[in-house]
Specification:
mainly alpha, single chain, elongated
Length: about 170
């Protein structure tokens, strides 16, 4: 009876039909395709891409227009091959754009979470400082201020001066 595989361990990788034992194993960077998709989506959304695509389509149509100079045409009037190429380009562009949007959404979600954490820390710090200021106000209310002490000293000085005046009159 064959030894049962453990379910908590990954399976041994099987060699594919095209895999040669002597070839070095190449590690794939999972972020590489994502970065490519973002750069492609960034390029597809530029005016430069639209301009070059317009020039390409115009040149294609002018080359293949019927009734023009006598030259070999590879895509006659309904421009089926041009339509096929544009559809192929769109079928690749749409998933690349979606992948780039998903990656941007993930980055935005992380940034929003970090912003929420920073806001919560700031809020906690402000609450702490507000409590500290309130406790300082309470403590300051119990401490004699400089103006209060001056007023008390002036009052005592005036009382002393009043007490000394009758003694000088004797």
């Amino acid at each position: 009876m064959a030894e049962r595989e453990r379910l908590d361990q990954p399976r041994d990788l099987r060699r594919g039909l095209g895999r040669r034992a002597w070839l070095p194993r190449r590690e794939l960077d999972p972020e590489r395709f994502g970065r490519f998709a973002e750069s492609a989506a960034r390029f597809l959304g530029t005016a430069r891409f639209i301009a070059w695509m317009s020039v390409f389509i115009l040149a294609w149509i002018l080359w293949n227009v019927p009734g023009g100079p006598d030259r070999p045409r590879f895509d006659e009037y309904p421009y089926i091959f041009l339509t096929l190429m544009l559809s192929l380009q769109a079928s690749y562009a749409a998933p690349l754009i979606l992948l780039a949007q998903n990656r941007q959404e993930a980055r935005d979600r992380i940034a929003a979470e970090q912003d929420r954490e920073a806001a919560a820390r700031s809020h906690a710090d402000m609450e702490f400082l507000a409590r500290e200021v309130a406790s300082l106000r309470v403590a300051l209310g119990e401490v004699a201020t400089r103006d209060f002490l001056r007023g008390e000293l002036r009052g005592l000085l005036s009382e002393l001066e009043k007490d000394e005046e009758p003694e000088q009159a004797d």
